[in-house]
Amino acid sequence: MAEIKKTANKVRAKLKVIEQNIEQEEHTNKSSADLRIRKTQHSTLSRKFVEVMTEYNRTQTDYRERCKGRIQRQLEITGRTTTNEELEEMLEQGNPAVFTQGIIMETQQAKQTLADIEARHADIIKLENSIRELHDMFMDMAMLVESQGEMIDRIEYHVEHAVDYVQTATQDTKKALKYQSKARRVSSKLLSRLSLLTI
């Protein structure tokens, strides 16, 4: 879990560095095709990163709910019944010792069950902290992706219209070549007639 967070933070930092480099280049070379391509790639990577982190967040939340259910069942096995609200309150306290209050351990199995509950509680606390950090990261990335949406639309528009401009330029070039050929023929005819007239 810590490794995933570390990797996610590295990816986020690299995406921000790329964004800053693109912004710096925009000031110096505003219409570079290479710059537009890099903007599109950066935006695509940002969106994919948000999708992956959203899936990771959903998986963590599902795991937390499963752990919570297991803790509730284990508490019932040890003879302590709790409501969902009480269990949430215990988990929010961040103190695994709350599960030991009022529980008398008579067998090794009961002690093992308690250790499992405390371990699950610690896992849930770690997950909650991770979910909070991921939420902050999501907010940053969501704002980044949203701000780049309009820019991507403009890039797509210009790319689509570039094909039209190339086709028009090709047609104009062909017309110019025809006119040039006709002009050469006319000038050679005029020169031959002028030479006949001068003789």
TrEMBL record:
<feature type="coiled-coil region">
    <location>
        <begin position="1"/>
        <end position="28"/>
    </location>
</feature>
<dbReference type="GO" id="GO:0031201">
    <property type="term" value="C:SNARE complex"/>
</dbReference>
<keyword id="KW-0813">Transport</keyword>
<dbReference type="GO" id="GO:0005484">
    <property type="term" value="F:SNAP receptor activity"/>
</dbReference>
<dbReference type="GO" id="GO:0006836">
    <property type="term" value="P:neurotransmitter transport"/>
</dbReference>
<keyword id="KW-0175">Coiled coil</keyword>
<dbReference type="GO" id="GO:0006906">
    <property type="term" value="P:vesicle fusion"/>
</dbReference>
<dbReference type="GO" id="GO:0048278">
    <property type="term" value="P:vesicle docking"/>
</dbReference>
<dbReference type="GO" id="GO:0012505">
    <property type="term" value="C:endomembrane system"/>
</dbReference>
<dbReference type="InterPro" id="IPR006012">
    <property type="entry name" value="Syntaxin/epimorphin_CS"/>
</dbReference>
<protein>
    <recommendedName>
        <fullName>t-SNARE coiled-coil homology domain-containing protein</fullName>
    </recommendedName>
</protein>
<dbReference type="InterPro" id="IPR045242">
    <property type="entry name" value="Syntaxin"/>
</dbReference>
<dbReference type="Pfam" id="PF05739">
    <property type="entry name" value="SNARE"/>
</dbReference>
<feature type="domain" description="T-SNARE coiled-coil homology">
    <location>
        <begin position="114"/>
        <end position="176"/>
    </location>
</feature>
<dbReference type="GO" id="GO:0006886">
    <property type="term" value="P:intracellular protein transport"/>
</dbReference>
<dbReference type="InterPro" id="IPR000727">
    <property type="entry name" value="T_SNARE_dom"/>
</dbReference>
<keyword id="KW-0812">Transmembrane</keyword>
<dbReference type="InterPro" id="IPR010989">
    <property type="entry name" value="SNARE"/>
</dbReference>
<dbReference type="GO" id="GO:0005886">
    <property type="term" value="C:plasma membrane"/>
</dbReference>
<keyword id="KW-0472">Membrane</keyword>
<dbReference type="GO" id="GO:0006887">
    <property type="term" value="P:exocytosis"/>
</dbReference>
<dbReference type="Pfam" id="PF00804">
    <property type="entry name" value="Syntaxin"/>
</dbReference>
<keyword id="KW-1133">Transmembrane helix</keyword>
<comment type="similarity">
    <text>Belongs to the syntaxin family.</text>
</comment>
<dbReference type="InterPro" id="IPR006011">
    <property type="entry name" value="Syntaxin_N"/>
</dbReference>
<dbReference type="GO" id="GO:0000149">
    <property type="term" value="F:SNARE binding"/>
</dbReference>
<keyword id="KW-0532">Neurotransmitter transport</keyword>
